[in-house]
Design goal:
Rossmann fold, nine-stranded mixed β-sheet, 18 strands, six-stranded parallel β-sheet, disordered C terminus
Length: 496
C-alpha cells in the first residue's frame, strides 16, 4: 500500500460524542481518529446543533457568507482539536438550519423537517467553502450517507473555480433505507442538480430528487459498512430499496468495509462509566456492574436470573416487533428485560405497557444516556439484536468487547462479526438465527439462556467474544487503499 500523507475531509450529519443518534456518529468520529493517528491530515465537518455536547468554544474561527437559490446563508465555524495527532472537528453554526431540538425530525410530530433538503445541501456547501478558505484542497472528500450526497455536484460547481479539480469524492452508505427523497423542486438547493434531473437521470428516481442516487452516480468510490451488506445491496432488490440497479453499474467501484470500534472509548478495562473495570481473566467482576445496573434502573438483583438487554432505536428495522412478540416468554423463562432506546411511538407504548404490567421484569429507558449504555454492556447477561436488516451494527461489537454475548439475526454486518456458538461451539461469540420470525428468535434466545446457566460454557463464549479484534486500525487501512485507488483513477468508471 502507498504511504503518501493525504488531506482528508469527512462530512457527516452527526459525530460522536458531540451529536449522535446511531452508528453513523461513531464511525464519523472513530475512522477519522484512526486515519489521523496514521499521520494523515484529517478534518471532520458537521452541523452545530442546539443540542451539541462537549464543545466549549464560544468564538467562531471563521464566518462565511454563501448564496444558494438566491438566499444568503451566514455560516460560523467552530473548531475543536484535542491535540495535533487528532482530527480537526469543525462545526457549522447556522441557526436557521441547525438551531433545532432534533437533528432530522420534529419531535412533536415525528415528521422529518420540511427543509431537510436545504439544511443538508448547505452542510456540503459550507464544508467545501471552509476548506477553500483554508487554501488546501483535500485529496479526498468523504461523505457519509444521504445528508452529504450534495457534495457530488458542489465539488464540480463553478463557484469553486476548479479548486477541487484533483479532489476525489468517496461516499459511504451507512443505511440504504434512508435516501434523502425530495420533490423535484428541491433541485434548486444543489448547484446544477436541475441539469441532471430528467427521467432516468443521475439524480431522478421515480420522478423525485434522490440524494442517495446522486452520490452513487457521481462518486469516484463507494463503500458500505460490511462485506455482507455490500453483497445484499448488490444482489437483493429489497435491500437496495430500488437502487440495486445503480449499484450494479458501479460494482467495480463498490467496496464492503467492516466498521470498527473506538477501542479507547469502549474498553472494559479502563471504562470509568462502570462500577468495576474488568478483563477476560477477571470476568467475575461483571457481577458488580450487574448489581449497580439493577439498582440504577429499579430491578431486584438476582444472580440466578439473567438480564437481557437491548440498546437500539425502536424501529421496524431493528426487529422490535420480534422483541415485543416474545416478551412473555422472556419474563416467564424467567429473565429480566431492559431496553434503552427511543423511536416509534407505538413500540414505546407497547414496552411501557409491559413495564407497567411487570415492573420487576421489564424496564424501558428512552432518554439518551451514554453512561447507562456503558453500564448495560458491562453488566447485562445477554444482548438482543433481532434486526430485519443491519448494514454493520456497532452495538454487537460493543457488547462482545464487554463479554456480553449477543443473540442476533443473521443479516448484514451481524454475520461478519458474530461467530455462531450453535454451529461452532468452540469458537462461538454469540448466537445467530436466520428466519425473521418470533419463533426463530425465541429458539435462539432460549438456547442462549440455557447455556447462560452453565457457567463454564458461558465463560468460554464470553472470552471468545472479548478476544475479537474490532479496532479501526485494520479497517482504516482498507479505507486508505480505496482512497489511493480513487486518486489513481483505478476506480473511475469507463463511461465517466
Amino acid at each position: 500500500m502507498r504511504e503518501d500523507t493525504l488531506r482528508i475531509l469527512h462530512i457527516a450529519s452527526e459525530v460522536a460524542p458531540f451529536s449522535k443518534t446511531g452508528g453513523l456518529a461513531d464511525v464519523a468520529s472513530a475512522l477519522p481518529k484512526s486515519l489521523a493517528a496514521m499521520g494523515h491530515d484529517v478534518t471532520v465537518v458537521s452541523p452545530y446543533y442546539t443540542s451539541l455536547r462537549g464543545l466549549d468554544a464560544t468564538v467562531p474561527v471563521l464566518t462565511l457568507r454563501e448564496t444558494l437559490n438566491h438566499h444568503e446563508f451566514i455560516f460560523e465555524f467552530f473548531e475543536y482539536r484535542a491535540d495535533s495527532l487528532c482530527p480537526r472537528f469543525v462545526f457549522v453554526k447556522c441557526d436557521e438550519l441547525y438551531g433545532r431540538t432534533s437533528y432530522y425530525s420534529d419531535p412533536k410530530t415525528g415528521q422529518d423537517y420540511i427543509d431537510n433538503d436545504r439544511r443538508f445541501a448547505c452542510l456540503s456547501l459550507a464544508a467545501l467553502a471552509y476548506v477553500k478558505h483554508r487554501g488546501d484542497a483535500p485529496d479526498i472528500v468523504h461523505g457519509h450517507d444521504w445528508q452529504s450526497a450534495p457534495l457530488a455536484l458542489f465539488l464540480k460547481s463553478p463557484r469553486f473555480k476548479g479548486f477541487f479539480e484533483t479532489t476525489r469524492f468517496v461516499f459511504t452508505i451507512h443505511n440504504m433505507a434512508f435516501q434523502g427523497d425530495f420533490d423535484s423542486g428541491s433541485t434548486v438547493w444543489v448547484d446544477h442538480a436541475k441539469d441532471h434531473f430528467h427521467p432516468g437521470g443521475p439524480v431522478e428516481f421515480h420522478g423525485r430528487f434522490n440524494f442517495m442516487k446522486m452520490a452513487l452516480e457521481f462518486a469516484d468510490a463507494i463503500n458500505t459498512v460490511s462485506p455482507t451488506y455490500a453483497h445484499e445491496l448488490r444482489s437483493v432488490d429489497s435491500a437496495g430499496f430500488g437502487l440495486t440497479p445503480v449499484l450494479a453499474t458501479r460494482h467495480k467501484h463498490f467496496w464492503g468495509i467492516l466498521n470498527g470500534l473506538d477501542t479507547e472509548v469502549w474498553n472494559p478495562e479502563t471504562d470509568v462509566q462502570l462500577a468495576a473495570q474488568y478483563s477476560a481473566p477477571t470476568l467475575a467482576l461483571r457481577s458488580r456492574n450487574k448489581r449497580e445496573l439493577c439498582a440504577r434502573i429499579g430491578f431486584h438483583y438476582d444472580r440466578h436470573i439473567p438480564l437481557c438487554a437491548v440498546v437500539s432505536r425502536l424501529s421496524d428495522q431493528k426487529g422490535i416487533h420480534l422483541l415485543t412478540s416474545i416478551i412473555g416468554q422472556i419474563i416467564s423463562s424467567p429473565a429480566q428485560l431492559l431496553v434503552l432506546g427511543n423511536g416509534d411511538q407505538g413500540y414505546e407504548r407497547q414496552l411501557r405497557d409491559f413495564e407497567r404490567a411487570y415492573p420487576m421484569r421489564v424496564r424501558l429507558s428512552t432518554e439518551y444516556n451514554d453512561p447507562l449504555a456503558h453500564l448495560i454492556y458491562g453488566g447485562a447477561d445477554v444482548f438482543l439484536m433481532p434486526s430485519l436488516f443491519e448494514p454493520c451494527g456497532l452495538s454487537q461489537m460493543m457488547a462482545m468487547r464487554y463479554g456480553l454475548p449477543p443473540v442476533a439475526r443473521a443479516t448484514g454486518g451481524l454475520v461478519d462479526t458474530i461467530i455462531n456458538a450453535d454451529r461452532n461451539p468452540g469458537a462461538g461469540t454469540g448466537f445467530l438465527f436466520n428466519e425473521y420470525t418470533p419463533e426463530a428468535f425465541w429458539h435462539s434466545l432460549h438456547h442462549a439462556l440455557a447455556l447462560w446457566r452453565k457457567e463454564n460454557r458461558w465463560r468460554a463464549i464470553q472470552r471468545n467474544a472479548m478476544a475479537q479484534d474490532f479496532s479501526w486500525h485494520r479497517s482504516a487501512r482498507v479505507y486508505l487503499d480505496m482512497y489511493y485507488r480513487a486518486i489513481e483513477k483505478s476506480l473511475v468508471r469507463s463511461d465517466a
